[in-house]
Amino acid sequence: MTTRFGRCAPVVLLALAVSATGCSPLVDVEQTAGQLRSSVQAPTVRGGEAVIALDQEPDKLDPTLATTLAGRQVFSSMCEKLYDVDPAGRAVPQLAAELPRSSPDGRELTIPLRPGVLFNDGTEFDAAAVKKSLDRHRELPSSGRRSELTAIDSVEVVDPATVRLKLKRPSAPLPTVLADRAGMIMSPAKLDELGENFSDDPVCVGPFRFVERVAQDRIVLQRSEFYYDRDRVRLDRLIYKAVSDDNIRIANLRSGEFDVVWEVGPPDVPIVSREDDLVLLNQPSIQYMGITVNIGNVDGKPGHVDGPLADDPRVREALSLSIDRNTLNRIAFNGLYQPACGPIPPTSEFATPATQACPPHDVNRARRLLAEAGVQTPLRVELLLQNDSTTSRVGQVIQAMAAEAGFDVVLRPSESTSAISAGKKGRFQTFLIGWSGRPDPDGNITVMHQAGAAQNYSGYSTPETDALIEQAAAERNTDRRRQLYEQVVQQLQQRNNVIYLYRQQYYTAHTKGMAGVEVYPDGIMRLKTAGRVESGS
């Protein structure tokens, strides 16, 4: 059902700013946006459980099929990868024994594997298991990893402790690609047993093993007796719960029902930062949020979408120009986030002034573009968004701003998994959705913009941009890659199938009774060595 919020005039933006801060001034950004990515490593006891509140329900717990950040939070505790990323975003070995050895032409990568590793069902982790998972990621028709691994031509078992990837072309991003779901290796025995129903009882290598999932209630993991580094794992159990309401998550953290809360909403950040019984972690992110416009996604396949927004890039540019990203940040997020105008974060070694430049907020030009396109205003635009309080606030600000340029934005709130499903199937006109970010620019671009990519919900691509994206990924010279990504971002900004808006700062909180919780720029909580603080510490 479509819900329409009341029409906002410019004066309403001020009212939204007041309500967003609880009738208090905007918070001191310098006090709350500094970096504290890990809690103090106080002495912890062995045993006990931690209840972790996520802001949305994870989708399938199948690394091949999954698409949500909430799912990645759970995977981090139960499904290790060939590589991980360190706090600086660099690939480091995890199930691999070292970084890939590249052939001189860059078309072969040889990966030695960590010895003595068992899956959480007690079966052996080896090169054959790696090949089976990578081939599944690449070949399963419903895989969300296919577009991430297109550079791989074949996976070969050299010996039980070594795999070799033969590539269609050199691929600079591949090690960081294998530091996410595309590098998660699943138990061959469980894959043979369950096939595409692997998420019913997922088995990987990890500090915790899957126990149960109760839909819309909890996901339970138990400390693994088979894990190669099990002596460093402190907790016996992790219980993940999905609670979309920011206020409920924080209230339950204060009451002790939750031990860790992912995503503290900006209005709560200054309050939580002053509470003696809570610890607030914050981490600059590599993610972004934006408006995806459905240009050619019909039932999940390429097709024609009617309407001026889909047909005319001038109309999409007008929508982008109507949004003042700095004001959006101040009103919706108390100034705690960053405006974003492209897929490459400012912390990336590939960031340049050109990739970080934002289109100006220009209502007059937006109106002229709509007139040139022959659009009758107000132009009705339906915006699909998740139905949590923060996202709703963003939607209302966008609604008010776009109205000044001639857009009649109608908000369509939806539960998170239903919204993602609608996005995949093209059942939307515009969709307020983001991406949790990857260290290499290719990971933030290919999956959203290339033809047939798993998360190209807009359904839009061009051969010219696709070729440029592939060229940038194959280039091994950093300076040349940087120049190519400037061209890619310029093309993305011209077509506006994704209208980039802002980049989050990740805020995570836990009780003082916990220690060792870490959050990296990829937005993933690391709980492997987290534990309960010894009494008296």
From TrEMBL:
- Leader sequence segment: 1-20
Report the InterPro entries cross-referenced here. Peptide/Ni-bd, SBP_5, SBP_5_dom
Q: Which UniProt keywords apply?
A: Signal
All copies of domain Solute-binding protein family, residue ranges: 92-446
Q: Origin, by domain of life? A: Bacteria
> Has the keyword S-adenosyl-L-methionine been applied to this entry?
no
Protein's name in the database: ABC transporter substrate-binding protein
Q: Which organism is it from?
A: Saccharopolyspora oryzae
Cite the source lineage: Bacteria, Bacillati, Actinomycetota, Actinomycetes, Pseudonocardiales
